[in-house]
Amino acid sequence: MASTQEKGWLQLHDPVNKYLPYWTQDASDPRSQARLLSIHVKTQAHCTRNFSACVERLYHSLPLHAAPGTVWDYNEFHNQVVAAVLEKVTGTNIHTLLSEDLQSWNMTHSRYPDHFGPGGPDVSADLVTTAVDYEQFMMQYFGGRLLKNETVTMMEQDHMPARCSLESCPLVIPQGHYGIGNWWLCPGDLDPLIHRTKLEPMPQRCVEAQVHSDQGLFGFWPVWDRRLGYWMLLATQGLPLLSDFKAEILQTVLKPFLDKAVQEQRGATLPDLPMPDWEHISAKADTKVLPTLVA
C-alpha cells in the first residue's frame, strides 16, 4: 500500500469512499470517516472469488466494532478493504499486484498463492517466502531503496492508541506496541512473552532504543535498530505453523553483543558482557509454549 502511495495512485489519509462507490458518504454513519489507515470492523474475514465483490459483500454484512481511528487492530478486515481499493485504482487484481512487487524486490523464491475458496485470499498472511528472500526485502527497506524516508518515518511511529480490539490484545503481550507493519521492541526484557509495555505508554528507554521488528510468530525474527543503524534476521528452518520462540530468544541473547560490536567499531569503549548461560537458554527454548490466548 505504501509503495502505491509513492507512485501517486492514492494517499494513505484519503477516505475509503473516495475510491469505493458503495462505501457510505453519510456523515451520520461512522464508516464514512474511515480512511485507508483507520478502518475497523469486528470480525476477521477472508474473501473468496471475486475478491473485490467479496469485500463489498463483507462491508454490508460485518458489524462496525468501533469508530474509525479509535481502536488498534492487527490483520483484520481493513487489510482486505485496502486491497480492494488497490484493485479499483490500478485495474489489476491483487494477486498480480503483489506478485509484481515480489519480482521488483528480487524476492524470486517468494509467492502470493493465487487461491480462492474458503479461507483465501488473505492479503496479510498468504505470503510464502524464504529467509534469503526476506533478506532482500530487509536490504531494500533498511537501505532506503524501497520507500521514501517520510513514509518510513510514518510507518515506524507508535500507532497504538489507548485500547486494542479483543482479537488483537493477546498479541500485545509478546510483542509490545505496533507501528504499521512493524512492532516496537523493548530491549532488556528477559522474556519475550512478558513485555513491560502492554497497553501502557512506551517506556522512555524503549522509545530511545528505536528497535523495530516483525511479530516473529511464524519463525522469522527480523530486527532493525534505528539508533545504532543496523539490522539482523533470524529464521527457523522449515515452515512451522507457529514459531516456538527459539528465534526470539536467540535475538534477545545476541543483540546486546551485536550492539556492543557496532558501537566499538565506531570507537566506543564498553565493558565486557557476561557470557550467556546456554544450558539455561536451551532449557527455556525447549519448554516455551505459545499462550492459548494467541491461538
From TrEMBL:
Coiled coil spans: none
Origin: domain of life: Eukaryota
Originating organism: Symbiodinium natans
Protein name: Beta-lactamase-related domain-containing protein
Pfam families, sorted: Beta-lactamase
InterPro entries the UniProt entry points to: Beta-lactam-related (IPR001466), Beta-lactam/transpept-like (IPR012338), Diverse_Enzym_Activities (IPR050789)
Domain Beta-lactamase-related span(s) in chain numbering: 5-157
